[in-house]
Amino acid sequence: xxxxxxxxxxxxxxxxxxxxxxxxxxxxxxxxxxxxxxxxxxxxxxxxxxxxxxxxxxxxxxxxxxxxxxxxxxxxxxxxxxxxxxxxxxxxxxxxxxxxxxxxxxxxxxxxxxxxxxxxxxxxxxxxxxxxxxxxxxxxxxxxxxxxxxxxxxxxxxxxxxxxxxxxxxxxxxxxxxxxxxxxxxxxxxxxxxxxxxxxxxxxxxxxxxxxxxxxxxxxxxxxxxxxxxxxxxxxxxxxxxxxxxxxxxxxxxxxxxxxxxxxxxxxxxxxxxxxxxxxxxxxxxxxxxxxxxxxxxxxxxxxxxxxxxxxxxxxxxxxxxxxxxxxxxxxxxxxxxxxxxxxxxxxxxxxxxxxxxxxxxxxxxxxxxxxxxxxxxxxxxxxxxxxxxxxxxxxxxxxxxxxxxxxxxxxxxxxxxxxxxxxxxxxxxxxxxxxxxxxxxxxxxxxxxxxxxxxxxxxxxxxxxxxxxxxxxx
Amino acid sequence: xxxxxxxxxxxxxxxxxxxxxxxxxxxxxxxxxxxxxxxxxxxxxxxxxxxxxxxxxxxxxxxxxxxxxxxxxxxxxxxxxxxxxxxxxxxxxxxxxxxxxxxxxxxxxxxxxxxxxxxxxxxxxxxxxxxxxxxxxxxxxxxxxxxxxxxxxxxxxxxxxxxxxxxxxxxxxxxxxxxxxxxxxxxxxxxxxxxxxxxxxxxxxxxxxxxxxxxxxxxxxxxxxxxxxxxx
Lengths: 475, 232
Fold this sequence. Notes:
The complex is a heterodimer. Chain A is α/β, with parallel strands linked by helices. Chain A folds into two domains: 10-300, 3-Layer(aba) Sandwich (Rossmann fold), CATH 3.40.50.10420; 398-474, no CATH class. Helices cover 51% and strands 12% of the residues of chain A. Chain A has 21 helices and 13 strands. Chain A has helices spanning 10-19, 21-45, 48-64, 66-79, 90-103, 115-119, 122-128, 138-146, 162-173, 181-198, 224-230, 248-263, 317-321, 323-328, 339-350, 367-371, 378-392, 398-411, 414-427, 445-448, 461-474; strands at 82-87, 108-111, 132-135, 201-204, 208-210, 215-220, 234-240, 244-245, 270-275, 288-294, 432-433, 436-437, 453-454. In chain A, the strands form three sheets. Chain A has a six-stranded parallel sheet, with helices on both faces. In chain A, strands 8-5-6-9 form a four-stranded mixed sheet, with helices on both faces. In chain A, a hairpin with a 2-residue loop joins strand 11 and strand 12. The longest helix of chain A is centred in the N-terminal third of the chain and has 25 residues, at 21-45. Chain A is elongated and about 105 Å long. Chain B has a single domain (42-231), classed as NagB/RpiA/CoA transferase-like (Rossmann fold, 3-Layer(aba) Sandwich), CATH 3.40.50.10420. Chain B contains seven helices and 13 strands. In chain B, strands 2-13-8-5-3-4 form a six-stranded parallel sheet, with helices on both faces. Chain B has a four-stranded mixed sheet with strand order 9-6-7-10. Chain B has a two-stranded antiparallel sheet with strand order 11-12. At the A-B interface, helix 2, helix 3, helix 4, strand 1 and helix 8 of A face strand 1, helix 1, helix 6, helix 7 and strand 10 of B. Strand 9 (270-275) of chain A pairs antiparallel with strand 10 (200-204) of chain B, so a sheet runs across the interface.
């Protein structure tokens, strides 16, 4: 298990996305709302560019000294009664967590939304050892009931409509009411309360860990992460190794950037900072706490030209402005990290072999770079990926290589060039109607599927230029 | 407690960064500090206005009163929430502001008022789960975002502001600061002075909500469905 989801080829995934009318409408309206939310929140601050600069400086300082800060963090967590496990791979992380679940004889495990546990395929690993895993974020719960992967990192069930959700609830949980979102949510609240109260283990991700004091901070809206950490006696938090900040003062800046960039909120409903186990006399909170710090390919990115990709705080601002994501949706990326950051990160974490198309799923318009609250140069990284794919990995598609060779030959021969401009017009005649082509042949089809193509002009530029010069000379 | 497989992991990071492990790192002076400028120079009244306005955005009822009327306003709010079972933190401020008398009179009216009692263990959670109203004081209040900050401990369980259907935060005016920046400074300072950081610091901004179904805002998901702030 890795970041990769599904085995369908890239073009099929894209086609599926493009043909999914509901998903495309949902994505475009979501993008509009996320984007205006982010803009308003940024405008209100007045000096958003300074905030971005500060965010970038904090992230870059942290990553430059990541070994130092992780050491501090693990000491601090341990001092507060927590156990820390450094996992090099997904397998190591899963194994460690499986062992805890087995030792605790845990039957029910509640999870709050976490991309990193999706990344390592933790749910499947837990089910292997007989644990019942319940996703408690509303969107994640819907997807779990429907056995569907997430399509957005902030609103994972964006691709589903309320009718489908109602259907899922009724099939899997005997829901009988309407498709009114409030009613659906109330049903989830009632169902999941039972799970929270009977759970043996709570599992969370981590938005930011504070190295100095050992606080694990969770940024949420629904309250499920609070329940998952307040009620069960054992808490396991899993964090990508880069998800940390040096101090509380850095934490608050990053949280301010995250909530604004993600959803345009000044703060989300709940920002919860948890340090170690519950203290003496406390009733809420875990008596046993484990922090799993995960590498899983991240360390390979350190010290390379892609290091800034590790600055990502998973706000999805780049996804919310991306014109390509808008049309193909999250599943087309074949990775749990979609959109521009997904296209940058996925090949780095999981290699180019399965993901060599992703850096091309971009128009290089740079909207992502401009939206990023920590100034990751996303579109530049995508160009660099393309360069590497063609030059170092030699993974350009065969067809493309052949065509490039052919093009080089053709374009360097004046006779061939002249001949093609001459035959283009009559050659395309069968498809031409009133000087436009609406249903072109061969490679033109990809273009004319969506828009008309102008028919080649009767006269080539070179012949027009020649006759004009003749006219001038004769005048 | 245990730390496992750390050395190998950190050595690898240092080596990929192309240097030996670092033993000491100074937090740098960053080039900008926009967080310090938000609402700089605002008076308490100005901040109160900011807070009141923000409460509208976060679907939270806001009442600005004084210590004399606090009890009456709180009673009205509890009644508005059909509060028959009420859970509160075990906080000396309830006595200081005369609210304990209010709780006594509610009890005489046949309502249940449960004060968090760490000796009763999980029974506290059981009560909270079926309670109509949870009540706590705010320890630091952030005007910008409309956030109450709770330092949860053995007298102020996390469940009080989480499990009941509704939640009431009592906000002493002197707890109001511009934004999270000041809260972080307070927490950091306490840590530097050797105080243990609470096992849970909850920043709560209105009722729980979700936009997971077709991006419709749903107010009230796993946490409280309705929230009132009473500033005094």
